[in-house]
């Protein structure tokens, strides 16, 4: 490796490292604010059943449901009309919020330990955390992207990605019946409220 | 997961084990063009929206060979009914009767006792640092932690987050492929490799030894308590994965595969 190349690499590192550190720091702060907001709303909620409704506006502020839906559907998304994309996003958002809020119990407080975050690409940050909640410990990783501020685009619990999990299901449904089948399946799941 | 042969089904029932445990497959990227082409004709009347984002192939479809899918789906349906009508009421009763701190203590004690599973498998994987950490955890929790009831080792940063391991993960690290996906009656999601791994785990689990070496009473008490202590967490995981799924079977399979893949990579 010649000297000029080494200097170039060094210069790139000097410039990019602080930028990466800044982005991870900003994303971490945003995530911390999001978690605090969610906990505050959950704490004020009179019951678990009322939680999904009160959490919705808060989660929509911090989570990019558009990106999550798009990526969960995958390449088939190109075959959706604008109306279908909007409908699918709305339904998928409802499912995700329901899934998330079901795990929260008013009055229970999570203890979250942030680990070293990484920036796999410009504008993207992965924040691994350890979550202690209701006596159990979980490894939770938040994927965040800078788009109208830092927003969560996926959550991985013990390595299981929300988006990837639905990607498998959407893919099978799409292959059977296209975008219409995906919308129908989403509508059915939303209508089928778990007890 | 530790069990006595007579209650193997129950232990496995923790088919949920699958969600917490077992295999690595080889996720492949779906050819986007093929996927779209296959369904394109069904959407012929719908004018596609303009998609500017170039992130539609960010995620792969997690795949595992599933030649027995019809049988697996039938077994999955049967397991779901058993979870719903038999195990969930038992789990709720357990949670109602036994206070959380006591449940936690029982859970911790069983996890502590089965440390040979983690110790031996870490050694078999050549990871002697983790094997040492497991031994240290066991010694600390068994003594200061009052027989493993209290996880005192969590106070030591180096020992607080040692990844779990098992025989199936050892096979994965040795390069063995997952083999076909299996849904085991009561136990739930697995693969051929992880099912074989369950035998190794049972052989290394002192709960199994005690059940075999002692009389009838213990034969019943140890394995069933072991199963019972895991029920709330296992069923909670199962519900989280399947409750709002479009296809419960695919959701459980995907989650299992992702979980095992991630566990094998650590």
Write up this protein.
The complex is a heterodimer of chains A (195) and B (266). Chain A is 60% helix and 20% strand. By secondary structure, chain A is an alpha+beta fold. Chain A has one domain: Tgt2/MlaC (Nuclear Transport Factor 2, Chain: A). In chain A, strands 1, 2, 3, 4, 5 and 6 form a six-stranded antiparallel β-sheet that branches. In chain A, helix 1 (3-44) packs antiparallel against helix 2 and helix 2 (48-62) crosses helix 4 (82-102). The mean pLDDT of chain A is 86. By secondary structure, chain B is mainly α. Chain B is 63% helix and 3% strand. Chain B has 13 helices and two strands, in the order H-H-H-H-H-H-H-H-H-E-E-H-H-H-H. A two-stranded antiparallel sheet of chain B has the order 1-2. In chain B, strand 1 (181-184) and strand 2 (188-191) form a beta hairpin. The interface between A and B is large, with 54 and 49 residues.
Concise overview:
The complex is a heterodimer of chains A (195) and B (266). Chain A is of the alpha+beta class. Chain A has helices at 3-44, 48-62, 65-73, 82-102, 162-191; strands spanning 111-114, 118-121, 124-133, 136-146, 150-157, 160-161.
Rg over alpha carbons of chain B: 21 Å
Oligomeric form: heterodimer
From the 3D coordinates, which CATH architecture of chain A would you assign?
A: Roll
pLDDT < 50 runs, ≥5 residues of chain B: 1-46
Describe the global form of chain A.
globular
Classify the beta-strand content of chain B into a percent band.
under 5%
What is the string of helix and strand elements of chain B? Answer: HHHHHHHHHEEHHHH
Count of runs of 4 or more consecutive helical residues of chain A:
5
* First-to-last CA distance of chain A: 64 Å
Remind me, CATH topology of chain A? Nuclear Transport Factor 2, Chain: A
Q: Which stretches of chain A are low in confidence, meaning pLDDT under 50 for 5 or more residues running?
A: none
- SS strand fraction of chain A: 15-25%
- Using the coordinates above, name the CATH class of chain A: Alpha Beta
